[in-house]
Amino acid sequence: MKISRRITLSILSVLLLLLTFGYLGLHLLVEERFAELELGTIERNQNRVVQAMAVEVGNLLRLTRDWAEWDDTYHFMVNRDPRYLASNINARTFETLGVDYIAIYDSARRPLFAEHYEQGKTQPVTPEQLVRLERLQARQSAGREFSGLWLNGKERMLLAGAPILTSEGEGPSRGILLMARQMDEPLLAQLRQRLSLTLDLPDEQALARELSEDQLRNLMLGARVLKTSRQEITAFAAFAALEGQMLPFSVTQGHVWREEGRTIANRLILWGGAIVLLFSALVLFILNQGITTRLERLAANLRLINHEGTVRRVLVEGKDELAQVALDCNQMLDTLDKLREEQLMAQQRLRGQLDALLALASSDALTREDARRAAGVVTRAICEGTGAVRASLWFCTEGEAQLYCQDLYLASKQEHQQGFSMPMAMLQGRYEQSRQGDEPCLVLSDPYDLSRFSAMLMQLGLPPFAGRVLMAPLHHKGELLGFIIAEHERPQQAWQADELTFVLCVCDFSTQTLLTLSKLIRLNEH
Asked: Which of 484, 515, 464, 491 has its CA nearest to residue 383?
């Protein structure tokens, strides 16, 4: 079976399964999930109410703290100047601050001032309310601020207290300042508008009508109670007051989520079926017209590559995965061509190195008693076998203090020079410190090393090149006798592994030959 037919059957089977499971899933799960979402929404709304009330309490506490940590208030507690009360706490103050009660107590919790605002006038707080406030303060820690809900008889209030300190928040505390705000209808209307919720504070009679005794008991213990009808769902919860009482509240919302889920499920079934059919037709068209045809052309191109000379590269179409496959094939072919070229170049280098070694071994200069001429043959062989533009052979003088240049061959001009000398430490130290591990040859490619080597050449009166430098040691029975130095002209030219091996072979051969010639020359001189 063709791959296009397999893909078509697989797509049709998958789409059929998706339609079947989608139909069952939408009818069996969507409505249930929307019902859970509805319950989660009512719970989040309850939490929003609690957070909004906490924000109101926090705002009242910050306002109370600002007044309590005011130098004028602190000085009033010290000198009891009545002008402070007359100028700072009046009807306009209550209206501006938006509070209903303000009370000031000294450090012994005795009331110095306590008034409430009602119908545009300030009135003293009743003795019964003072007793309740004293009882509330007795429950709080001395010198600590507090805030929360307070049930003052039938009144429900937001209350905050803060110790009276200096503006820097330092003590000792001179007393406590209390501010309270009634949880009246304007405050509830403000919260409803801010939260966009149906919020209510039911009284005992309304709770008795709506809830059973067990539900009411659980509500007063801090649990949340849900009451569901066909049209709406109501959640009951309670705020914890300062003296341990519970203040019930309710949030009501309609069954919009369940109905919305049913409607969405029906629409999804219709639209999903139509989209799946269109999608399957589009996918099959794209596969047959785009992908399958391009796969066939790619396969044909790959078959033609087997016939040498017919096609050298695969045709690249588009910018997708198939195009990337074609690009990878072309990259592989480029790599093979590059490897083939490198192999040919390596073979050419090996032939040149073999020719240079054969010419070096058969040269009559090595059989005569002329060390300089023999050294010239060696340096010439180095340049011919590696493509170096300049090569030189250096031997240690007696005492190993100096290096003497037996021969320096410049390939471009075919010139030989001798007579250069330098301290042994200049090359030996650089060689021993820079080479890595047990590698005998040292290739100088770092710009800093090359600059130092160029400076050394300039001291010898030789012009430096920009290419990499090869330093190969001349050893005999573990003793360092000198170096062969070869230089490339351009920095792009790299020293290949076979070239390093060739240079080491020439080093071994030239070491034995030149040592033998030197001995013969000394014997003849005696």
From this structure: 484
